[in-house]
Amino acid sequence: QAQLVESGGGLVQPGGSLRLSCAASGFTFSDYRMSWYRQAPGKERELVASISSAGFFINYADSVKGRFTISRDNAKNMVALQMNSLKPEDTAVYLCCAARNSNAYWGQGTQVTVSS
Q1: 55 CB neighbour count, 10 Å cutoff
Q2: How far apart are CA 47 and CA 108, in angstroms?
């Protein structure tokens, strides 16, 4: 059974950093594109960053370019999101997603709150 478990969220002051991790199990991780999405209250789910199965192709939302870095370790079945220079508007539930063709798995999400 496929499972994605996010960790690393929390409360941080503006300008601070957090590192999110997503541990995958139950499927062939290295075959899947991995992405981080976020959803703030009252807003639509937004793609934050995505990395191809072998890690060669990466893309970011314009709002996080230069501040966030996505990475993956196929040997450990993990994907991470390093978030620097955090802003209050980054506050959201961050979700990990694994996708291949028409198949997709989602984690439960981890809350990130940026506030002074």
Answers
A1: 15
A2: 16
